[in-house]
Write a structure and sequence with these properties.
Rossmann fold; six-stranded mixed beta sheet; globular; binds adenosine-5'-triphosphate; binds magnesium ion
Length: 254
Amino acid sequence: MPLLDVRQVSKRFGGVAALNHIDMNVLEGEIVGLIGPNGAGKTSFFNCVTGLTRIDEGEIFFKEGAVRLDKLASHSIVKCGIARTFQNLRIFKNMTLLDNVAVGFHTRAKAGLLDAFFSTRRRQVEEKRIFSQSLSLLEFAGLSGKGNEISANLCYGDQKRLEIARALACSPKLLLLDEPVAGMNPTEKEEISRLIEKIRRQGISILLIEHDMKVVMPLSDRIIVMDEGKKIAEGKPNEIQKNENVIKAYLGEV
Ligand SMILES: Nc1ncnc2c1ncn2[C@@H]1O[C@H](COP(=O)(O)OP(=O)(O)OP(=O)(O)O)[C@@H](O)[C@H]1O
Ligand SMILES: [Mg+2]
C-alpha cells in the first residue's frame, strides 16, 4: 500500500476544473516529481492534500490507508506527518531563524496552554529541547551559525532553506515542496537539490512540484504530469521526456 494514496480527486473553482478525477500515489521513501504547465492544478493538489482546500469528490488516504485525510482539518494533517512549503515563501520575516523553526516544533509540542501560562518545569524542559532541535535542523538545512539572525536579512535562497527547515520540524513522513528552487541561481539550485536528497535519506518521502526540468528529472524516481486539472502522464523521468502528450502540453498543438 502506498504512503499517500489519492483516488479520483476532483476540485472545481466556479467554471474551472482545477483537479479532474486525479489518481496518484507516493510510496515510502520515494521522490515523486509533479510537473505541468502554469495553471495545471499542481498547487491546488497540494492544497487539497494538506486540507487548505476541501475536495469536491474522491478520497485521500495516508499511511498505507490507515488515515483518511480528506476528512481532517489542516492542523490534524500536519500532526499525521505531512508538511509543506509554499510557492510564495511563507516565513515570519521579522523573527529569527531559530524562532521560525521553533514555531514548526510547537505544532507537535506536548506542553499545553496551562504549562505555558505557569512556566512549568515541563514547559522549560520542552523549550530547551525545541531550542536544541531547532539548532540541529538549521545546521541540517545548511544554515548553521545563523540562528539568531532576523530572517528578513537572509538571501532568498537561505529563506527557502529556512522554510524547508521549519517544515521538517513537524517530523513529517511526507514533505510537499512547491517550486523550491524558483528564482534561484544554478548554484543555489544545485544546493537545494542536494538538500532534497539528504531529506529523502532521512526516510522522508517527497512530492516535488518544479518547473525546472534540470532539477526535477534527476531528483525524481517517478514523474507525474498534469495539464488543465488532469493527469496526462506518469512514468520514469526518461520515459516522460519522450512522451508525446507531455511534449504537446508544454509546447501547445502545432
Ligand atoms: N482559490 C482559487 N479560486 C479560484 N480559482 C483557483 C483557486 N486556486 C486555483 N485556482 C485555479 O485553478 C487552476 C489551477 O491553479 P494552480 O494554482 O493549482 O496551478 P499550478 O499548476 O500550481 O500553476 P503554476 O505552475 O502557475 O503555479 C487555475 O486555473 C487557477 O486559476
Ligand atoms: Mg502552483
